[in-house]
Design brief:
Helix content: 25-40%
CATH topology of the largest domain: Adenine-n6-DNA-methyltransferase TaqI, Chain A, domain 2
Radius of gyration: 25 Å
Strand order of the largest sheet: 14-20-17-18
Distance between the termini: 16 Å
CATH superfamily of the largest domain: DNA methylase specificity domains
Strand content: 15-25%
Shape: globular
CATH architecture of the largest domain: Alpha-Beta Complex
CATH class of the largest domain: Alpha Beta
Number of domains: 2
């Protein structure tokens, strides 16, 4: 049986803190050097990161104690929120919210080190200190105890786990491409009106539109528009049950943060007469955000993603025309400038930003009886179905990875046993 050796983290890599330039040399969007903050890793998908929201100039870099991290370095956010982990895809630097590790290649495979830090992130977070916010110091990071096998075993373990993450990333890129295809088709047909270029156009609430493209208000079309609810007192103490989806989960097709899932009891779910997600309805962000500022967002669930069974809470609308193709059309239509600006204006009026049923039912929309609208649904629905299937597969792969990770990283499961 192979012996795993004990090390301090500082013995298998160089721990490097980040820094922020002075206000005289602010971080900007036009610099030459990639500059990463913990915010850049919030919601980040994939293990690699190339750049963040902003860049830093050479002058700004030279004005502070920021260190350049070589490609392959492991970024670890050490200031609340603690525990975001990523691998530098190229040379970059970070702000003071990180304690990154430059691996000693003679001792540690950098992909293995990435998973080792993911495995230990809760333990490292527990070592943080501070009253205003928790932070893991550089010395504390260096003294973190870890056990590692031989480089040969590290390579095998890293390969197993990375193969799962690679497939998840492939699915993500496929989904991104599929949605871009659908968006491009929608823009061509219903924004640029390419199929109608040689026809007659007329004035409408939406501006100039093709004469043959009829409009209705949503209120004039048979539909279901409803929310769900949660029990009085909230659901914070319920650790399992039936998922209850809130506004924070309505972030586009194929996007769901399982770490934020809340639950209702099966008994409570059975009492609900509204809010059950059947699949392929348009889900609409209903309320929340800063006063005077409302950003609409939408999603579609289905094919067992993100759950086989779930309910909405009172902060999400479900809009269903009993026509999956038309629901798919609406997903893209609701992202047009007209609808976004309208809902943004309506939602920003209230003290607590949000929209109501009347706001949605007053929206003019191209009728589902238009042949080109029907055709769009026929073309795009299979793309959405594939996105949802890919998401469900990625969930299965992520579950397998998360099951294998602690067993492989602790040495409980030997690589020759897989």
């Amino acid at each position: 049986m192979e012996e795993w050796k004990e090390y301090k983290l500082g013995e298998i890599g160089t721990v490097v803190g980040g820094a922020t330039p002075s206000t005289k040399e602010p971080v900007n969007y036009d610099g030459d050097i990639a500059w990463i903050t913990p915010k850049d890793l919030s919601g980040h998908t994939g293990m690699f990161i190339k750049r963040g929201e902003r860049m830093i100039s050479k002058t700004g870099f030279d004005s502070c104690s920021c260190k350049m991290l070589p490609k392959g370095s492991i970024l670890f956010s050490s200031r609340a929120p603690i525990g975001y982990v990523a691998i530098a895809e190229n040379e970059l630097c970070t702000n003071q919210g990180f304690k990154s590790v430059i691996p000693n290649e003679e001792l540690i495979n950098n992909i293995f080190l990435y998973y080792l830090l993911v495995y230990n992130k809760d333990y490292i977070e527990g070592l943080g200190s501070g009253t205003t916010f928790k932070e893991v110091s550089g010395q504390t990071m260096k003294n973190v105890d870890v056990k590692i096998p031989s480089l040969s075993s590290q390579n095998k373990i890293a390969s197993i786990l990375k193969s799962l993450d690679d497939k998840i990333e492939v699915n993500r890129k496929i989904n991104e491409n599929l949605e871009q295809q659908a968006q491009a088709l929608f823009k061509s047909w219903f924004v640029d009106f390419e199929p109608f270029k040689n026809g007659e156009f007329v004035e409408s609430e939406l501006g100039m539109i093709p004469k043959g493209l009829s409009l209705n208000y949503i209120s004039e079309i048979p539909h279901v528009l409803e929310t769900g609810r949660r029990p009085k007192g909230g659901v914070g103490e319920i650790a399992q049950g039936i998922p209850s989806v809130g506004a924070e989960h309505v972030k586009g097709i194929g996007t769901y943060d399982y770490s934020k899932t809340k639950y209702i009891t099966p008994e409570y779910a059975s009492s609900l007469k509204t809010g059950k997600v059947e699949g392929y309805e348009l889900l609409i962000y209903k309320d929340g955000g800063k006063p005077g500022y409302f950003i609409p967002n939408y999603s579609i669930f289905g094919e067992g993603y993100p759950f086989d069974l779930c309910y909405l809470n009172e902060h999400v609308f479900k809009l269903d025309f009993n026509d999956r193709g038309y629901n798919a059309f609406c997903y893209f239509y609701f992202q047009t400038d007209y609808v976004m600006n309208y809902l943004n204006a309506q939602g920003g009026k209230a003290a607590i930003p949000g929209i109501n049923k009347q706001d949605i039912e007053n929206i003019p929309i191209y009728s589902q009886n238009n042949e080109i609208v029907k055709h769009f649904g026929d073309v795009v629905l299979p793309l959405i179905k594939q996105i949802l299937f890919n998401c469900k597969e990625s969930c299965r792969l992520a579950s397998l990875r998360d099951t294998l990770l602690p067993r492989l990283m602790s040495g409980e499961l030997k690589v020759n046993e897989i």
